[in-house]
Every structure is written in structure tokens, then in C-alpha cells.
Specification:
The protein has helices at about 1-15, 25-35, 40-50, 60-85, 95, 100-120, 125-150, 160-185, 190-215, 220, 225-230, 235-245, 245-260, 260-275, 280-300, 310-320, and strands at about 85-90, 90. With about 325 residues, it is an all-alpha fold.
């Protein structure tokens, strides 16, 4: 785990060194604000570890890692607008602190800045890196569009939901690792297995997020607990509850989602979900994807000791409380 700590420090130093012009201040001040809110920096760390896994120094992938983190933060700023989220990492979201138009433009700058860092990689890796990055960026947008489409649909299946979170969340974890593996000069087969590891961890990660959204400790969470319920968001918990509910429970659930508000809505939904055991079912499904990730990691042809840091990160993501 010492390697992860060292690489994490490199990421923080490089991100702190990312500079933006001073003017116009309404464009760049939000970025200076947002980039200092912190975050786990999981995705850029995966990029460095993906490189390190194949015997190349992780810092060789630092520019790609920063590109991944800037792109991720671009998606967060835009997602917060679309979700009308008041908090991010325990602080006011950009569109709340400024306004939505400013947040859109500021987020766009981060997307452009991500390409700037991507272009700073060795030219021999650029075609592969650009292919992975642009493919993934489009997939993340597809996932976000599906998420928004689901808001007006009453017939969303759990399979459709899993595909949505694969696109919106998981492919970026897979791509972060794949980009590191490209710079680490991994074989095509090992790159594919590492991507599969990241993608399955990503799906498990989002299922964990669904659980935490309703069941996390508010003091630790950093976001509004129950935010998905308040916004009537389709999550694994809600979809599973709809599928398992009796007629009477279904009527209660519909009433809660359509007529309740605030803490009362959150409490009532949690009580009904507890009756149906959907938290446990979500945890079980999460573990299935984690096991698929573990199986993918076992197929990668490097020494087992080289895999330790990535396995520990996956374990942390599955057991986190925030």
C-alpha cells in the first residue's frame, strides 16, 4: 500500500499545480474552488497503478492520470446541475454557489484541460490513449442520458439500470486502468482483463453508492443522505423494491415517491426498503460484481504481489462508508 500512498501524493501535487487564468473570474474561480474540494482521487490513482502493474514507473502515466481526474470533475459539475444537487463533498456545488450557466462553461473548460494533459503523453502512446479516452467520454455521456431518460419512464428494468451505471460510472474506472496499462506497455490480453477488472469494480462501486445514498452516516457522507429518494431517482434499491412489492406495498411506495417530501419521504422509503430486504439484495449483487472483478484480476499475467495495491483499493471501495 506504500506505493499507492506515494503515487497519491504525486497526483495531489500535480493537481494542485494545475493552473487557470485569472480572467474572466466567473469562469475560472469556480474551477479553483471545485478542484480544492478534494475527493478520493481514485481514478487517477488507478491509472498510475495500472502502469506500475506492468513494471513501468507509475509516474510515467501522471499526465494521463490528471486527464482522467479533470474529465471526472467535469462530469461531476455537469451531473450536479442536472441532478439539482446542493452539495458535493460536503460543500456547495458550483451551480449553487454561482449559477448553472457558469457551471456549464466551467465544466467545459475542465474537459478541454483534460485533453491538454492527455496530449502531454509520449507520442507513441497517444493514438491508443485518445481512442480509449474519447470512447469512454462518449459512453459516460450515453450513461448520463440514459439516467435522465429513466426519470420519465416507469418500466426501467434492473438490467437496463446495470447497463446505465456501467456506462455512466464503470467504464471510466476501466479506462483509467487501461490507459495506465497502455503506458505500462501491457499485452492486449492483459489490458483487456485489467479493463474488465475496473469495469466490474465500477459497477460494484455504484451499487455501493446506491446503498450509501440512503443508509450512510450523514456525518461522514458529504452529500445529502436520501438524495436519490428525494429526486425520485431510479436506483437498484428502488427498482428492486418495485419488483418485489406486494400490491399493498406497491401502493405505499407509489404514495411515498409521489406525495411525500423531505425527511418524511426518506424515512418512509427506508422503512419500506427494510421490509423488502432490498439493501441486502443490493449488497449481494455488489459482491457478485466484485467477485467478477477478482476473477479478471487473476487472469492478468503478472506476479501476485504486483496486484496487491489494486486489490486493496477494490476492497476499500467495497467497504467504504462515504
Amino acid at each position: 500500500m506504500q506505493a499507492s500512498i506515494t503515487l497519491q501524493s504525486l497526483i495531489e501535487e500535480r493537481i494542485k499545480a494545475v493552473s487557470f487564468p485569472k480572467e474572466p473570474n466567473n469562469l475560472y474561480d469556480p474551477l479553483n474552488y471545485f478542484m480544492t474540494l478534494g475527493g478520493k482521487r481514485t481514478r487517477p490513482l488507478l491509472t498510475l497503478l495500472g502502469c506500475d502493474l506492468f513494471g513501468k514507473p507509475g509516474e510515467n502515466a501522471l499526465n494521463a492520470a490528471v486527464a482522467v481526474e479533470l474529465f471526472h470533475n467535469f462530469t461531476l459539475i455537469h451531473d450536479d446541475i442536472m441532478d439539482e444537487a446542493p452539495l458535493r463533498r460536503g460543500k456547495s456545488t458550483v451551480h449553487t454557489k454561482w449559477n448553472s450557466n457558469i457551471a456549464i462553461l466551467s465544466g467545459d473548460v475542465l474537459f478541454v484541460k483534460a485533453f491538454e494533459f492527455l496530449s502531454n503523453n509520449d507520442v507513441k502512446y497517444l493514438p491508443q490513449l485518445i481512442e480509449v479516452f474519447t470512447r469512454t467520454a462518449a459512453e459516460v455521456c450515453e450513461g448520463q442520458q440514459l439516467d435522465m431518460d429513466f426519470e420519465s419512464r416507469e418500466d426501467v428494468s434492473i438490467e437496463e439500470y446495470i447497463e446505465m451505471i456501467r456506462l455512466k460510472t464503470s467504464v471510466l474506472l476501466g479506462a483509467a486502468l487501461e490507459m495506465g496499462a497502455i503506458i505500462g506497455e501491457a499485452s492486449a490480453e492483459d489490458k483487456r482483463w485489467l479493463y474488465e477488472f475496473g469495469m466490474n469494480v465500477g459497477i460494484a462501486f455504484q451499487l455501493k453508492d446506491d446503498i450509501l445514498d440512503l443508509y450512510a452516516d450523514p456525518e461522514k457522507f458529504g452529500k445529502q443522505v436520501g438524495g436519490d429518494i428525494l429526486s425520485n431517482k431510479k436506483t437498484f434499491l428502488l427498482l428492486k423494491a418495485q419488483k418485489l412489492a406486494s400490491n399493498e406495498q406497491s401502493e405505499r411506495l407509489n404514495h411515498i415517491m409521489k406525495n411525500s417530501a423531505g425527511d418524511e419521504k426518506i424515512s418512509a422509503a427506508r422503512e419500506l426498503f427494510d421490509e423488502l430486504g432490498v439493501k441486502e439484495l443490493a449488497t449481494e449483487r455488489m459482491k457478485e460484481y466484485y467477485q467478477a472483478a477478482t476473477a479478471a484480476m487473476q487472469n492478468i499475467r503478472v506476479a501476485e504481489e504486483a496486484k496487491v495495491d489494486l486489490v486493496e483499493i477494490a476492497d476499500y471501495l467495497m467497504n467504504r462508508e462515504v
